[in-house]
Write a structure and sequence with these properties.
By secondary structure, the protein is mostly beta strands. It has a single domain, classed as TolB, C-terminal domain (Neuraminidase), CATH 2.120.10.30. It has 1 helix and 24 strands. The chain has a 4-stranded antiparallel β-sheet, with no helix packed on it. A 4-stranded antiparallel β-sheet has the order 2-3-4-5, with no helix packed on it. The protein is globular and about 45 Å long.
């Protein structure tokens, strides 16, 4: 019966997390997020006031953006030659990401219109992906070829985030309580995780064929991400509390990749509709 309900919700492009928050299913209204003139737009973070941050491509160059009050602001770090990639925003409007030069990448925090480089972790470039209201930053670094390990940066001190027995770990988001979500790999596949109060909880979407990617996290411990649906052989979005799962699919899309969710349940991310360029979306609760 659960499988039948899961497929029905996916078919009508409905997201329900009534099993988590309330008895009534919550339907979503979808809207596009598109930087004017961009060939692709990739929203990566959303805060409680609805400000959205991410990156876009235009004329072969990648820039960060902030969407606030209906207006887009471009973010480009000084010295960036291979692009500015914005990945997270908190309620104070502080943004994180990384940018590239011809020779090296740098993690940054963006405050008052300026990119400030983050210190290296274990001699490697940090790639920030999320920031909470306390200013704690999470992300990943690359200690070896094809290997990532997660980190938390708090008060200028790094702590490694690594799921036990994993071959790679990527921390993606952190909420105000310090819970961290992300993705890890082991010899069998890739899975989502949440790290809270010193303990890791791992999860995999049923029917995902050992391909589940955990991404955004809100203060209610709801996680969004994507998985490989073995029945359709396409990547679809999900929302979970690590126990129950519901599918999130942008109407008319081929694949859906949710990136972030705020405390109002608004989800942002990217989707593909048959083209090679990702398009941005926002899924807003409509009831």
């Amino acid at each position: 019966m659960k499988t039948a309900l899961f497929r029905l919700l996916a078919a009508v492009c409905m997201l329900s997390y009534g099993f988590i928050a309330q008895a009534q299913d919550i339907t979503y209204t979808y809207s596009d997020i598109a930087v004017p003139g961009a060939t692709s737009t990739s929203p990566r973070g959303i805060n409680s006031t609805g400000d959205v941050a991410g990156y876009y491509e235009s004329s072969g160059q990648v820039y960060g953006f902030l969407l606030s009050g209906g207006n887009y602001t471009t973010i480009s770090c000084a010295g960036a030659t291979t692009g500015t990639f914005v990945s997270g925003i908190n309620d104070n409007g502080v943004i994180v990401g990384y940018y590239g030069t011809d020779f090296k990448n740098y993690g940054f925090i963006y405050v008052n219109g300026e990119c400030k480089n983050l210190q290296e972790f274990n001699g490697e470039t940090p790639y920030p992906t999320g920031i909470n209201n306390q200013g704690h930053i999470v992300g990943y670094y690359i200690p070896a070829t094809d290997v990532t390990e997660g980190f938390e940066l708090a008060e200028q001190t790094y702590t490694e985030i690594s799921v036990p027995n994993s071959t790679s770990t990527t921390a993606v988001a952190i909420n105000r309580f310090g819970a961290i979500s992300g993705t890890y790999y082991d010899s069998a596949g890739q899975y989502g995780f949440i790290f809270s109060n010193g303990s890791y909880t791992t999860f995999s979407v049923p029917g995902s064929g050992a391909t589940t990617n955990g991404a955004g996290l809100n203060d209610k411990d709801l996680i969004v991400g994507n998985y490989d649906d073995s029945t359709t052989q396409a990547y679809e979005g999900f929302v979970t509390n690590t126990v129950r799962f519901q599918t999130l699919i942008v109407p008319a899309s081929v694949t859906t990749f949710p990136s972030a969710i705020n405390d109002s349940g608004v989800v942002v991310g990217s989707y593909f509709n048959g083209t090679v360029n990702p398009q941005g979306f926002m899924a807003t609760p409509s009831n």
